[in-house]
Amino acid sequence: DDWNDHFYQAIEDWNEAGALELATVLDNEGPPCEKHTRGMVKTCNGDYGRTDWTGLNELLFENGWIVSSVAMMNENYLRNARDVERQYVMCHELGHAWGLPHRDEIVGNRDLGTCLDYTITPQNNMKPDEIDFENLSQMYGEMTIGRGRRLKMTASAGGADMFVSSYANTTHLAHGTKRRTTTRSTREGRSDRVLLHKSDSHEIWEEFLGNGRRLVTKVLLSTRRD
């Protein structure tokens, strides 16, 4: 699968943070990314149709704590994309999987040199930077010998979906400001959501599931929409 190199490179780059210890395992039989698995992060590539997004990340919260995540790369837009764009999207969505926010949401601004920046020049923003690493350390704490937080990453080969499984302490994030909208769903079958934020480059949605559970979806919009 031509996504595997991008996946493993992104894991290597995020491993440099020192706040997470990431290990990779191949998995062709895991459940699809449409379903969350508690205590796990899944990363998948596939043709999800003309959704307007190149990359998508979902975070499932229970009482304000992340309990699972899903990251998806949409080959409908990325199948013929340059390697630098694929690497940027992979790094970007995995950054959200750890709970990190966007760094700059204005595409025309000077590149920050991080994949959590919005950009039209992905070759300048394919990796996390030191500020991303500092933010991870604040969220998860520094690793200590024998007491590190280990994330088990799994990926599939042969053109099938790619999966990432994560075993880590959950992360507490602040709640956002909500407003109701009736715009289209970013995922099939989910049409009634709360739109937290929208710009030309991204959308952030929230769905309340009951019993203290909520789903936050961050969508990286394609520049090739029609």
From TrEMBL:
Organism: Minutocellus polymorphus
InterPro entries in alphabetical order: MetalloPept_cat_dom_sf (IPR024079)
Gene3D superfamilies reported in the protein's UniProt record: Collagenase (Catalytic Domain)
GO molecular function list: metallopeptidase activity
Record-given protein name: Peptidase M10 metallopeptidase domain-containing protein
Highest taxon above the source species: Eukaryota
